[in-house]
Design goal:
By secondary structure, this protein is of the alpha/beta class. The protein is 33% helix and 26% strand. Strands 6, 7, 8, 15, 16, 17, 18, 19 and 20 form a 9-stranded mixed β-sheet that branches. It has a 6-stranded mixed β-sheet with strand order 10-3-2-14-22-21, with helices on both faces. Strands 1-13-12-11 form a 4-stranded mixed β-sheet, with no helix packed on it. The protein is globular, with a radius of gyration of 21 Å.
């Protein structure tokens, strides 16, 4: 049996950032981070495209808006302090035709409300930033950037271990109990160990709703996995994209559409689409987990969402199966792109929370009971906002275990 003040489930960037913030604010606490994988940052963090988001898209006053901008500054300061490469390269959000101008103006107003540095630019100014992009108007966001979030997570893990906190890997949580004993300790059981603590923090990402449920919470939403598939520009064609190029997103969805991302390592990713994954860790089309798939199909919210958005879903699936269709979507932004310019790149899986009424949860979602604080929805821009999310959760922990 291992004892601690706080056990954090999940060694992705949000879990590690929460542990680091808690250890900084309350150094007297003993913290253990546990994860079922053999390495930290194995899933969403390790498959992230590495964008430092500015916070321009999000509803003013939402957790995403409040935490993204401050979280980005915190990540940049962290990278400066520990020598992790990052770059403020800037991005453009491009309206290809007049039908998108109203939505572009709406995003610009949100950016101003969220205190994001941004400006509307003309076609000529757009081509000064991105000569190969088709568009009639755009928003330029100079503060957007790129970083390697896996390196950030590894540095957080190193710092936690230096502070004598433990990161226990290969520890899949199978039960959480809160027995009414004199010490009132919470018991966390894994497949190979037993832990006791005063409070559990659930940052389980793709499995956060399941971790929450076994602790007695009734999650308001269920995680539905969406695979984001990417291509990468061949080296000879990387010059077509200087920095970050985004379309005007569909306001009905929390996805940003296929875009071009220059990576901190020098490559250029193109994508992603957003297709239903048949496994919560389904990084390949052939990955099928019957339990995950049945869980998705048995959830009433899934069918309500599917009925409401079937047309878009079919389009995403078609782009997944047909490279030519994927290229056509990219050509809206960059007409020079050809099928031969693209090679497959690793995919990611987004843990998207879905309500029973079929609505996709558009904001970060945090729920609590007597045993656990649970981060139930932390998709993009959670990596950018991770240090601020960590502080938010750490403050809630401190209020509970004084």
């Amino acid at each position: 049996m291992v004892s601690a003040d706080v056990i954090i489930v999940g060694a992705g960037i949000v879990g590690l950032a929460t542990a680091w913030q808690l250890s900084s604010l309350h150094p007297q606490l003993k913290i253990i981070v546990i994860d079922k994988e053999a390495t930290v940052a194995s899933h969403q963090t390790g498959h992230n495209s590495g964008v430092l988001h500015s916070g321009i898209y999000y509803q003013p006053g939402s957790l995403k808006a409040e935490n993204c901008r401050l979280g980005k500054l915190a990540i940049e300061n962290f990278c400066n302090e520990y020598g992790i490469p990052f770059e403020r390269c800037g991005k453009v959000i491009v309206a290809v035709d007049e039908s998108e101008l109203k939505a572009l103006d709406h995003i610009f107003r949100r950016g101003q409300q969220n205190r994001v540095q941004c400006r509307i630019i003309s076609r000529e100014q757009l081509h000064e930033h991105e000569p190969h992009v088709a568009g009639i108007r755009a928003i330029h966001v100079p503060d957007a950037g790129i970083v390697d979030y896996r390196k950030v997570a590894l540095q957080l893990a190193l710092l936690l271990r230096e502070r004598q906190h433990e990161i226990m890997l290969g520890q899949k949580v199978i039960a959480v109990h809160h027995p009414k004993t004199p010490k009132n300790a919470i018991v966390v059981l894994t497949e190979s160990n037993e832990y006791r603590c005063r409070l559990v923090v659930n940052c389980g990402g793709l499995h956060c709703d399941r971790v929450s449920a076994i602790a007695g919470l009734r999650p308001a939403a269920k995680i539905i996995p969406f695979r984001g598939e990417y291509y990468e520009l061949i080296p000879e064609r990387r010059h077509l994209c200087r920095n970050l190029i985004y379309p005007v997103p569909d306001p009905k969805f929390p996805f940003l559409g296929v875009h071009f991302t220059r990576m901190i390592g020098g490559g250029v990713e193109c994508g992603p689409n957003a297709v239903l994954a048949f496994s919560r860790e389904g990084y390949r089309k052939r990955d099928i987990n019957p339990t995950d798939l049945i869980g998705t199909f048995m959830y009433p919210g899934f069918w309500k969402m599917a009925f409401r958005h079937w047309r878009m879903g079919c389009g995403e699936m078609w782009r997944s199966l047909n490279k030519r269709a994927f290229v056509k979507a990219l050509q809206r932004l960059m007409p020079e792109i050809r099928k031969s310019d693209l090679v497959p790149a690793p995919a990611g899986v987004r843990a998207q929370a879905l309500l029973r009424d079929g609505k996709l949860v558009d904001d970060f979602l945090i729920e609590e009971n007597e045993s656990m604080i649970s981060v139930l929805n932390a998709p993009s821009p959670a990596a950018t906002a991770s240090l601020n999310i960590g502080k938010l959760v750490a403050d809630r922990v401190a209020a509970r275990i004084k």
